[in-house]
Every structure is written in structure tokens, then in C-alpha cells.
Amino acid sequence: MKLDRRQVLAGLGGCAACATPLYTVAQTLQLGSFDITSVSDGHLVLPGSMFFDGLPQEPLQEILSKNGVSADQLKPPCNLTLLRQDDKIILFDAGAGAGFMPSAGALLDSLAAQGVAPEDITHVVFTHAHPDHLWGILDDFDDPVFPQAELMIGQAEWTYWTDPDTVTTIGEARASFAVGAARRLQAVEDQISLFNSGDEILPGILAHGTPGHTPGHMAFEIRDGTQAVMVGGDAIGNHHVAFARPDWPSGADQDPDLGAATRLRLLDHLATDDIPLMGFHLPHGGLGRVTRDGATYRFLPEDA
């Protein structure tokens, strides 16, 4: 397995008022016939309370201090996975677009830095339908950003976000997520194809059901022979608490208890089988290894 690094400079680095997307190192991975690259959509700006409320404060502060993370505000990167093989150019998730927050929505610039135009994308595969993963499928005029692409989403995720009752059952804090997802999925319905956990959705790409963050969240194992990498989406949502205490519930998950059970199962699988992880909100372009650290885990970026 050949690993190398490239830096995609697509911004001014730094984020003075968090209005300019903060671009990250793009990691590349040659996996047999697959050419895999992480591409940046910028980053989010989120209150720490979204993740940390209700957690034991003393051990939490120890974990955050060890990782240099603020308890008040987080700025997680957004790393999308671009896969090229033969005549296919596959994008995992679509980014936030222009309508979610000003620090995100940089995907098209990052793709351009890789020599890829939106019309070149043949497939967009969704881990789930939260705004930073889905809203980038439409432009400012509500036209499809990826007009030639087949848009692939899990059956359970599609059913949940297109259900008219979701907006009233998801909770007030996420009601806008439901409205935005339903509108966008309806707009691109003619491009949509559905799949289930366990399906090989494209040659060498296996869908793994990883529910909890959303009801139908999926991760994807890309495999060529004995070599593999896991596109994890938000099943493992950060590089600190999610690894040090994966059993703790996270307020970022729609079902915190199920999310914790999924996280434990996925971390064990990645560590046991030594499968690299491409994490949407993990640092250093998102690519790294999961290693055991006593009874817990650590994320080791490939460029560290």
C-alpha cells in the first residue's frame, strides 16, 4: 500500500472571524486500482456543548487538554473522499454548499485543485444526509451541482429524511436539517439510487450500516484484494473523546446510545484488522490508523 502526501492550497490559511474556509492537507492513498484523495470542504464552527454537555467533567477536561481542544468551541475539518478508478470518479458526500455556514462550502475549489470539474463526477455516495454532507448537491439556483452523477444513498436514510413526520419528531434543534434534506433530496430524486447495508454498491465498495449518528448512517469499505480503507463519515466524529472514551454518548448523534455502540464496534474492527480510516471530521486530511491504547483507542494520522 503506497501512501504519500500532497498539500492542496486553496485558501488563505487561518480564519480570522471564521468567515473564510480553513483548508486542510489533502491525503492520498493508492489502493490497488483505486486512487483515493481527501478533499476539503473547509470546516465547521460548533459549540462545545453540542458534544460535551452531560459528560463527566474532570476526565473530559483531561482528554481535551491532552489533545489541545477547547471545551467551548470546536472547528472540525470537513474531509470528503474522492475516488478515481478507470472511467469512474466517485465522491463520498457532497459537502455543505453555500447555505450552511461561511467556514464551509469549499468543495468545488478543492476539486478544481485536483483537476476535477463537477461534471466529471460519475457517482456521489452519501454516508448520511446532515447538512455538511448533503446540502452541497444543489447550487445557489437550486440546480444540481453534479448533473452527470448517480446519487447513491442508503434506503433507511432516504426513508427517514423524506418522511414528512421527521421534521416534527427530530427535535427543534435539528428541524432545519430535516427541512433542508427533504427539499434537496426531492430536487435530485431522478438521480437517486438506493442500497442497503451489506450491498456492494459499486465494484470494490461495500456498504456497512453504522446507525446512531443518523438512523441510516453508512460507512464504506473500499477494498482491492487484501488492501482496504474505510470511509467512516460521522460514525467516528472526532479524534479526541470519540477515541479516548468511545462508550460515552455524544450529543452530536441523533441516538447517542446507539451511536456509542456503533463507534465501539467500528473502532474494534478497524484496530483489529488494521484498516486505515478516512474520517470526515478528523485532522490532517482525515486519513489515519486506529490503534488500541490500553482499553481505549488513539487516532494516528498518516502524516504524523
Describe the structure.
- This protein has 304 residues and is α+β, with helices and mostly antiparallel strands.
- The chain contains 9 helices and 17 strands.
- An 8-stranded mixed sheet has the order 1-2-3-6-7-8-9-10. A 7-stranded mixed sheet has the order 11-12-13-14-15-16-17. It has a two-stranded antiparallel sheet with strand order 4-5.
- It is globular and about 50 Å long.
| Residues in helices, as a percent range | 10-25%
**What is the residue-averaged pLDDT?**
91
Runs in which pLDDT lies below 50 for 5 or more consecutive residues are 1-21
Radius of gyration: 18 Å
Largest pleated sheet: 8 strands, mixed
Question: In order across it, which strands form the biggest sheet?
Answer: 1-2-3-6-7-8-9-10
Provide the succession of SSEs.
EEEEHHEEEHEHEHHHEEEEEHHEEE
Coarse morphology: globular
Kindly state the number of beta strands. Answer: 17
Q: What is the beta-strand fraction?
A: 25-35%
Structural classification: alpha+beta
